[in-house]
Design brief:
Layout lengths: L2 H20 L3 E6 L1 H4 L4 H13 L3 E6 L2 H10 L6 E2 L2 E2 L3 H22 L15 E2 L4 E5 L2 E2 L2 E2 L4 E6 L1 H9 L3 E4 L2 E3 L5 E3 L2 H12 L3 E6 L4 E2 L5 E2 L1 E2 L1 H7 L5 H15 L4 E6 L5 H7 L6 E4 L4 E5 L5 H13 L8 H7 L3 E6 L2 E11 L4 E9 L8 H15 L4 E6 L3 H5 L4 E3 L6 H6 L7 E6 L1
Parallel strand pairs: 1-2, 1-13, 2-10, 5-10, 13-17, 16-18, 22-23
Antiparallel strand pairs: 3-4, 6-9, 7-8, 11-12, 14-15, 17-18, 19-20, 20-21, 21-22, 23-25, 24-25
Helix pairs in contact: 4-5, 7-9, 8-9
Amino acid sequence: MSSNKKDYVKFFRQSSPYIHAHHGKTFVITLGGEALASPNLNNIINDISLLNSLGVRLVLVHGARPQIEERLSARGLESRFHNEKRVTDRQCLECVMDAVGNLRARIESKLSLGLVNSPMHGASIRVISGNFVTAKPLGVIDGQDFLHTGAIRRIDKEAIQQQLDSGYIVLLSCLGHSPTGELFNMEVEEVATHTAVCLEAEKLILYSKLESVRDHQGHSISRLSPQEASKAIKSLQGDSRRLLSSAITACHGGVDRAQLISYEQDGSLLLELFTRDGSGTMVSRDRYEEIRAASIEDVGGILELIRPLEQEGILRRRSRKELEREIRLFRVISLDGMIIGCAAIHLFSGEHAAELACLVVHPDYREKNRGDLLLSAIEEQASQQGMDTLFVLTTQTSHWFVERGFAESSQKSLPKEKRSQYNSERQSKILVKKL
C-alpha cells in the first residue's frame, strides 16, 4: 500500500470516534465577509456539506464587512465607527441590506450545487433563512447615536430547533428585525455567539484569517481555557481580538468548545473537528488534555499504548488481567478521550521507597514535555505517600532518567521484595532518585 493510501486509512480510522461524537450535535459556524470572499470558499462549502451529510445540525451565521465597505466606497460614502462599532445611518443600511442579500443568495446557491463528480453530488442540502433574530437599537453611547446599528434582543430558539429537527441548515446574517418592522445591522460575531448560547450548541466555529492564536514568541496556541484566553486577548487586536472575545463569551455562556480556524487553509474545518491535534485554536470549558488517575475503562487504551514497546523488549509484557488488577497504580494523560501517556507507581512502604514503572508517551505526542509531567505526577504522589526514594528499572532509557536527577545504583539499593523479583536475563539498569 502506498504512503498516501496508508495516511488516508489512518486518518479515516482516527476520525471515526469524532464522526460518532458529532452526529446529532448542534454546531454554529461563523462565516465573516472575508471568508466569503476567500478563494477557498468552495472548499469551505464542501466541508460544511460533509458535516451535514454526517448528521451534524448546522447553523451558519454570515457577515459582510468587506462587501459593505465596497458598496459604501462605490457610492462615495465613508464608514463611520465609534469604539470599533459601525455607525449605521440610512444610506449605510441600504449598503448592508444589498451586501447581505447578495451573500445570502450566493451561499444558498453554493449549498445547492450537486454536479456529478463534485464533492456535493447527491448531498440534497436544504437551507432556510428567515426572521429568527429579533434586534433592538444600540442607542446612544458616549453621545454617539448608532442609528440603525443594533444589538440582540431575542433568538427564536424554538423555530430554529424545528428547522434543525427537519434536517435544514439554518442561515442567519448580521441583520436583525425589530417588532416595529425596522432592520438593524449587528456584528456577525455577536449574532453567532448569542445563537450558540441560546441553542446550547456543542461548538461555535469561527473562521478567521489566522490559522491560530499565537503567543508572544509567535508560537501557535492550540488550546486555551476561557481564563487563559482572557489573558491572551490583551495582546491581540482587530479581527483576532474580536473572534477570541466571542469564543470566551460563548464558553462562559455554556458552549462546550469554541474553535478559531483559518478560512485560507484548505480543510481546516475537517482537521479541527476530526483530528486530535486540530488546525486552529480551541477555547474549551472542559479539560481537553489532563493527567489523572487511571480507571478500569482505560485498560484498553494503556494496552494499545504499551504493546509496541513490549514487542520491542523495552517493556516487560503485561496481560490485560494484570493491568486490570493494577490499574489503580497508574496515572494517564488523556487527550480528548485517547490515552497518550501512562506511568505506574508501586509503593514499598516498609522501606519508604517507590518504583516508577511503565512510563510511556505515544510517539506522536512526545513534545511539550509530557514525559516530564508524568514523572512529576509520580514523584508528587510518592512524596505524599511518605516515600523517600523513587527508583526505576530500564534497559534503554537510562540517560533520560539521569538527566532528570536519577543516579545509577545496584541491586542492593532495591527493596527486598523487588530484589527477589529482579530479572537477571533482562539486565535492567537500576536508577534511584532521592525525593
